Each structure stands twice: as structure tokens, then as C-alpha cells.
Amino acid sequence: MSALLDKAGHIATVTIDRPEALNAIDPATNDELVRIWAGVRDDPEIWVAMLTGAGDKAFCAGADLKELIPELARRAREGTLAGFNFGGITRGYDTWKPLIAAVNGFALAGGTELALACDIRIAADVARFGQPEVRWAIIPGAGGTQRLPRAIGMSAALEIILSGRQVDAAEALRLGLVHRVVPAGEALAEARRVAEALLQNGPLALRAAKQAVIQGFGLPLEQGLDLELRLFADVLRSDDAIEGPRAFAGKRPPRYQAR
Questions:
Q1: Does residue 117 lie in a domain region?
Q2: Are residue 233 and residue 116 in the same domain, yes or no?
Q3: What is the pLDDT along the chain (259 residues), one digit of tens a residue?
Q4: CB atoms within 10 A of CB 34
Q5: What are the residues whose beta carbons fall under 8 Å from the beta carbon of 147, sequence distance 6 or more?
Q6: Which residue in 144, 194, 231, 246 is a FRET match for 24, CA 20 to 30 A apart?
């Protein structure tokens, strides 16, 4: 298989496993990733998930230009491209579980888009990002034109998308494209440390907070506040919301059950 799922406790690690192709995604890999991420979404024992690429050269070099792009071009001509979900998480993927990208190398085109579809992005200092699609007479089609401006601002995003240039890890950090940079070879370990830290928090609260931020981002303030209050009420009714204050009062670690 060209995509792998590993579960350890409440943490899932999804690995794109085509290092010989810089983890570029072909049709079979895309289908496998869609299946894997659906399982992550539906598994109640998975509370946090990480995404990385096999090897030490690439996170993901995007869509396989020899196989996947011709297939998508055919579907576009046939009018059957609507809803295409690159990599399993870039379109139509509804989960409020936190997703962490461990970017260990090149993250170009769809690779940048996959990283952007994650909530927290950890990059090795050798990582490079970019949206070079215009060089091949196409445009970002897995969220790059929408998520990149939301992450780093319209002006910076337009320059990167229209030029097709690559951005190194230091610039990505400065722009806000990634959240932290670590030495080469340590991105996945750092992502795991972040995941383990998240597991110390209430899992239902994490999901509700993510939902409030993402769904409320494009709403008028009053509607966003209404959404926040509804989600606040939902988590207050949970068993975990009883356990958290009890643990605080008892000066002990909380024992959350995601219910």
C-alpha cells in the first residue's frame, strides 16, 4: 500500500508512502488516503491525527503529474470533477479532531495544500513549500487558492501562487504558513509531542473549539458568537466537562473519556 495508518493510543499517524516518487499522489494512493482518513474520522478511539511523508526528502510533492493530473483532466472534460477530495482531507472532509502536519521535506503543490488542511504544521528546517501549478498551466485545485490566503494573507499568497516559487522553512515560519521549525529528521517526533500535549486537554472541547473557529471565521460577529455559545453549551453537558473541574479541584490529572 502507498499510504499507511498507525494507531498508538488515541493518536493516529497517516503516512504517504511513495518515497521513490517524493510521495506524489497517484490515483491509487489518493483512493487509499480517502479510505484511511474516513476511518480516522469515524474511529472513536482516535482523538488526534498526524500526517507525514515516508523518507527524509518529501512530505508530498503534490499530485502525480504522469497519472493523477491526466485522470483529473479527463474527469474535468466529462464534467465529473466536482467534489474531488485530494489526499482525503482537502475537500468535503468533516472532522473536528485536531490534525497535525509533520512536514519532513518538500511540500509542493498538493503537498502544501495537504499541510494547509491540517490545523498545526511542524516543519523540518529542510522543508520547502510552494504552489507551482501555474508552471504546468493549471492552478491549485485542492484548497491552495482558499486556504493559503487565509493562513498568510492575500498579498503574500498571491505572490507565491502567481510566481510558483518555493518558500523555505524559515520564510514559511515568518509568513505564518507553519507554526514551528525543527532540525531535519525531527518533524514527526515534534508533531508527536504536540499531539501528546493535546491529549491532555478535553477531546470534545478540542473538537468544539476547532469547529467554532473554522465555522465562525466567515460569519458576522454576532452569528459567530451564537455559534460559540451553542458549542459551549454542548461541551458543558458532557461528562468530560464535569471531570475537568473535579480534577482541578482534586489537584489530579483529569481522566477524559470523550463523552
A1: yes
A2: no
A3: 899 999 999 999 999 999 999 999 999 999 999 999 999 999 999 999 999 999 999 999 999 989 988 888 899 999 998 999 999 999 999 999 999 999 999 999 999 999 999 999 999 999 999 999 999 999 999 999 999 999 999 999 999 999 999 999 999 999 999 999 999 999 999 999 999 999 999 999 999 999 999 999 989 999 999 999 999 999 999 999 988 888 888 888 989 998 9
A4: 18
A5: 113, 116, 117
A6: 194
Catalytic sites, residue numbers: 113, 133
Return the CATH number at 209.
1.10.12.10
Same structural domain, 221 and 193: no
Tell me the pTM.
0.94
CA-closest candidate to residue 62, choices 141, 125, 127, 4: 141
β-pair partners for 60: 107
User: Which DSSP letter does residue 135 get?
Assistant: G
Cross-strand partners of 124: 182
Q: For residues 216 and 115, state if they share a domain.
A: no
Which domain does 78 fall in, by range? 3-198
